[in-house]
Amino acid sequence: MNLIRVIADMETTCFADGWDADMVEQLFRYENYRYFILYSDGSFEYYEGGDQLWFVDVNMENRELAGYAIISCTPFDADLERIAVMPKYRKKGNATKIMEKVFWQVREEKLESIMLEVRKSNESAINLYKNKGFESIAERKGYYKNPVEDAIIMKKMMQ
CA 106 from chain center: how many Å? Predict the structure, then answer.
């Protein structure tokens, strides 16, 4: 199965406003994006953005997709664009496993911090982020659509 389709399918399963395959394909063009795919057997695959991603096929033999994260990187920091765990793999520590891989990569690239936006009503995600060292730094009014909701901006220093 093609990586674009894999991420787009997970997007529509995990988010009311999930990105479609065209949006995911557009993101693949940016070399500053990083993709982390977690499988049901606990293995990970990691990809960096660029033209080669359009041709990546994902090996699904004897495993399912459990979750993923997408980050974008600047010379100084990272933005956690998406993190999701498929419904049947939630509440089993998989979001933490994915975040640890993200943190490792951010440290590897010697970035100073990582930021994210989270729905104000998503208490379980907010608690996870706080437990991982993120702090609330601001709010964005009406940031989310479908339904419209404010976002909390959170930041974690990595150095």
Answer: 13
Q: What's this model's pTM, rounded to 2 decimal places?
A: 0.90
Distances (CA, A) of 159 to 34, 99, 107, 155: 20, 16, 8, 13
Of how many residues is the chain composed?
Answer: 159
Query: What letter would DSSP give residue 32?
Result: T
Distance CA 80, CA 2 (A): 23
Residue identified by tokens 């520590």 is 93
Residues forming a β-bridge with 150: none
Categorize the per-residue pLDDT at 150 as very low, low, confident or very high, splitting at 50, 70 and 90.
Answer: very high
Q: By the 8 A CB rule, do 115 and 153 touch? A: yes
- Do residues 121 and 148 lie in contact, with contact meaning Cβ atoms separated by under 8 Å? no
**Where do we find the tokens 């709010």?**
139
Burial bucket for residue 84 (CB in 10 Å: 0-12, 13-18, 19+): buried
pLDDT tens for each residue of 102-134: 999 999 999 999 999 999 999 999 999 999 999
| CA-wise closest residue to 73 among 103, 45, 117, 114 | 114
Which has the closest alpha carbon to 117: 68, 66, 72? Answer: 72
Q: Which amino acid is at 80?
A: L
